TrEMBL record:
SMART domains per record: HTH_LACI
The keyword Disulfide bond belongs to this UniProt entry's keyword annotation: no
The keyword Transcription regulation is assigned to this record: yes
Keywords per UniProt: DNA-binding, Transcription, Transcription regulation
Pfam families named among the record's database cross-references: LacI, Peripla_BP_3
Record's protein name: LacI family transcriptional regulator
GO molecular function per UniProt: DNA-binding transcription factor activity; transcription cis-regulatory region binding
HTH lacI-type domain mapped to chain residues: 1-55
Gene3D superfamilies assigned: 3.40.50.2300, lambda repressor-like DNA-binding domains
Signal peptide limits: none
Coiled-coil intervals, chain numbering: none
Length: 333
């Protein structure tokens, strides 16, 4: 069945069928119902792509993420899809990995599918070299591009970010107030978010008269890997009485390291995570962490996106604060 068959069976023009499909009010209720009945009787499903071209919208948003198996990004994807569905938009997901070539390839694939907008979940999409971000700037000239936990100044893209620097500074301040004098900071990558968190750690130590040099480390992902990494730091003679982590997985690895080495938490080693994920409460003891309010992040991004698609002006950068969640891996005041 196609639109011509529906037109013939309903005894109306092709233009009338098209108006019914597009929800036009220029069709009488009786005619509309007649066309809809013919469609239902014959199992007719309109071609979404062709209809989208006619309406100049596919009502589809492309979502890019580096790794959907990451517990944080998995929740982001779920929340984005839920919020977009509420607004009547479908989503198309591409998991790009971490290589620049793959990110660019998948972005171009989504653009070729005529998506209405792009959402880039996670700070892994902002490269250190500005020229490597050119493909994002070009995409932002074609469709709205929203960066979650990433900022690309002057690109025309929109950013919704948590103030990671402030959150980690407050976590470090809290540990120092609770007696720590030799903290270390573990982070996964020099992404935008990773750099912000590192700057917050270094700022806290400097303000408390502690030297931040040689106390921050790029750490391999994975709980066992983190535990082994901390064991190697100890074997090299580095002394530390607190471990701040850029995410809860690294913090869970720090808990594993402490338990395996017989270190008492939090008396001998205080530990903090980030994201307030399930890992922070599944751990024993439960992990002090920063709640970066992922649901607020996603609902805000989709709300702003709908405003942009509706022709409204919105700020290019929206920043909000995290909440600190104190649990059993840090000492009471």
């Amino acid at each position: 069945m196609n639109i011509y068959d529906i037109s013939r069976l309903a005894g109306v023009s092709i233009a009338t069928v098209s108006r019914v499909l597009n929800g036009s009010d220029k069709v009488s209720d009786a005619t509309r119902q007649k066309v809809l009945d013919i469609m239902e009787q014959n199992g007719y499903t309109p071609n979404a792509f062709a209809r989208g071209l006619g309406l100049n919208t596919m009502r589809t948003v492309g979502i890019l993420c580096a790794d959907s198996s990451d517990i944080y990004l998995a929740k982001v994807i779920y929340l984005l899809e839920r919020e977009l569905w509420k607004q009547g938009y479908a989503s198309m997901l591409c998991c790009t990995g971490y290589r620049l070539e793959e990110k660019e390839k998948y972005l171009q694939l989504l653009l070729s599918r005529s998506v209405d907008a792009l959402i880039l979940a996670g700070s892994q999409f902002i490269e250190e070299k500005s020229e490597d971000n050119g493909y994002l700037c070009e995409a932002a000239k074609k469709v709205p591009v929203f960066l979650l936990n990433g900022v690309l100044a002057g690109s025309g893209a929109y950013s919704v970010v948590c103030d990671d620097a402030l959150a980690v500074k407050e976590l470090a301040d809290s540990l120092i107030e609770r007696g720590s004098r030799q903290p270390v900071f573990l982070y996964r990558s020099p992404s935008y978010s990773g750099k912000q968190k590192l700057s917050g750690f270094r700022r806290s130590l400097a303000e408390h008269g502690l030297c931040p040099d040689g106390r921050s480390f790029l750490c391999p992902a994975g709980i066992p890997e983190t535990a082994r990494f901390l064991e190697s730091l100890q074997a090299e003679g580095l002394c530390f009485d607190a471990c701040l982590s850029s995410d809860d997985e690294l913090a869970a690895g720090a808990v594993k390291y402490a338990l395996a080495g017989g270190k008492r938490i939090p008396d001998e080693l205080q530990i903090t995570g980030y994201n307030n994920s399930l890992l922070s409460v599944c751990s024993t003891p439960e992990i002090t962490t920063a709640d970066n309010r992922v649901e607020f992040l996603c609902t805000t991004a989709v709300s702003l996106l709908m405003q942009v698609l509706g022709g409204k002006d919105v700020p290019e950068r929206t920043m909000y604060s995290a909440n600190l969640i104190h649990r059993a891996t840090t000492r009471p005041l």
